[in-house]
Structures are given as C-alpha cells and as structure tokens.
Amino acid sequence: MSTIDETKLSPFFYYEDRNNITPILYLPTLQDQVLLPDYANCLVVETLLRMCNIKYEICCKNNVEEMSPNGEVPFLKFGSVVISGFKPMVDFLLTKNIGLPLKENLNSLQVVERDLIMSMCTLTFENAEKYFIWFQDANKTLSESRYGSKYPWPLNIIKVRRKVASVHKQLYFAGWSSKTQEDVLKEVDLCCRTLSINMQSNQFIFGKNPSVLDALLFGHIFAIISTKLPNELLKEVIFSYPKLICYSKFVEHYFWLN
C-alpha cells in the first residue's frame, strides 16, 4: 500500500479549465537524437508536470534547442508564455497557482536541506552527464553523430564544434573542465553516497509527500541508468547504491506507471 498522502496529489486543473489552455511541452526527437543531459532534463520536467497533475501535450521537434528562448531543452508553452529551465518552470507554476503539490509542508531546516541537496544534485549530475558524453572518448563519437544527425553537411560539423565549445565553456566555469574521468566518478560517488544515507524505503526524499527535489533527482537517476552508452562507468556508480535504484523504481511506478 502506498504511503503517499493522496490529498496532496489531487487533480488541480482549474487554470487550464478557466483559460482553455493546454500547456505544450517541446521535446527533442527522442528516438534518434536526444543526448543524456537533455533526456534527464526532459524527465525532470515531465515528472514535475505529472506531480502537479497537469494535463499537457507533447510536441517533438528536431530543432527544439534552437526554438528554446535560452537554448535549454525542454521548454514549456503556456498560451503566449514560453518557459525554459527547471527553476523558472517551478516558479511559474507556483505563481499561477497550478503547482499546489509544490507548496511543500517543510520546516525551515528542511527547506535549507532541500535547497542544498538540489544544488548538489544539479551541479554534480548535470556536469557529470555533459562530461561523459562530450569528453569521454568512447561516448563522444556517439554524441557527435547523434547531435549532428539533424543537420545537413557541412552544417552538422559546424554545429557539433560549437556545441563542444559551449559545453567546454560551461564545464570550465563550473570548475569541471580540468577534471579527469576518475575525478568525475568520485564526485558522482560522493553525491550518491550523501543521497543514499538519508533515503528511506518506498518514500520520497522528505517522507510521504513529493517535492520538487524528487522530480529533479528522479530525472537524472533514471536517465543515467536507462541510457546505453559505450562507456557506462557513470551508470555503474549509480547501480552501486541500491537505495537509489529502489527510489527510482518507486517514483517511476508512482508517477509514470500508475
């Protein structure tokens, strides 16, 4: 039997009903071109919408990265409003009163803990995912092929080079560009160990009710363990923590399989 407080997850559609607006979530064409970081972000956002019981449509586009206002994938369109990025989406849902389950019943200490864990997970998983698909030799070849497949020659070569340069710049400013593969794996292992210590069986991070942290954490964990890559050392780190795997299955079952 689920330990979820069902009253926290009741349907909350009055924004849609009042304005006759169905939000549209723009995603990349998943089957042949999505890369691990984008796949993780797509899962994070979709889990967030499911957590809020928001009905939405999905629109897959080859050029979704170019369509996004800041280049981030995915992005959400509410009528004439376009939002990209996890934090802006959370803020928008709360502002429009359509994110009722996001109004977490956390005390001040838990809020601080949640924000610290979210910061740690975002920094660690996002940078590790980018590092492993663009700077690990075996994975880089596959990433270049997938990313460039949606563009004609020679634009595909130009776009791949620009993407690699952009990711390198992001990792440089995050202090990750000089890390070795072993350094990255140690960072991920430390993050996973910290998460695993505080996890309980068949519950969300803060107990019976979900929070934005659960959407963020599930998206990254599930994306890493379900994505096939030539080099899967990143996945092996996650699998070395059974609590994280059980947590991922619990969230998947509750929001995706019910």
Automatic annotation (TrEMBL):
Instruction: Kindly give the InterPro entries that the UniProt entry links to this protein.
Output: Metaxin_GST, Mito_Protein_Transport_Metaxin, Thioredoxin-like_fold
Q: Name one GO cellular component term.
A: SAM complex
- One Pfam annotation reads GST_N_4
Q: Which GO terms describe its biological process?
A: mitochondrion organization
Domain Thioredoxin-like fold stretches: 40-139
Domain Metaxin glutathione S-transferase, residue spans: 190-247
Q: Which PANTHER family match?
A: METAXIN RELATED, METAXIN-2
Q: What is this protein called?
A: Metaxin glutathione S-transferase domain-containing protein
**Species this protein is from:** Clastoptera arizonana
